[in-house]
Amino acid sequence: MSAVPSTEQVEPTGPGGTEHPTVSREDVAHLAHLARLAVADEELDRYAEQLDVILHSVAAVAAVAADDIEPTSHAVPLINVYREDVVRPGLTPEEALAMAPAADAGRFRVPQILGEEQ
Length: 118
Fold this sequence. Notes:
flat, two-stranded antiparallel sheet, Histone, subunit A
C-alpha cells in the first residue's frame, strides 16, 4: 500500500470533471502506521472523510489559481518596524554579579536542577 491516497476510487470534482483520489480507511491506517500513531478502528472512517475534504479543498484552490498571479505569503505587504541598533552602555560583569543572589568565580551561581545520575 502506498503512502499517498489510493487512485482506485476517484470522484469527479471541480470544473471540467477533474478527478481527484479519494482517501480510504486503508490509506488512513497506512499513514497512521507510518507516522507511528495509534488510531482506533472507529476513527479511521472519520479521519478518511476529513482528509478527503482537505485534499478536495486544496484541489479546488489549485484549480482556481492562475499562472499570471504571483504567489504571496501575506495579503498585504509587510514592513519591518525594527528600531536601529544603537550601542548603549550596559552593565559590567562586576555590576551584574553584584546584583545576583549568588556568584562564584565571576559567574552566576544557580541551584542544581538535574540529579547527579544524569
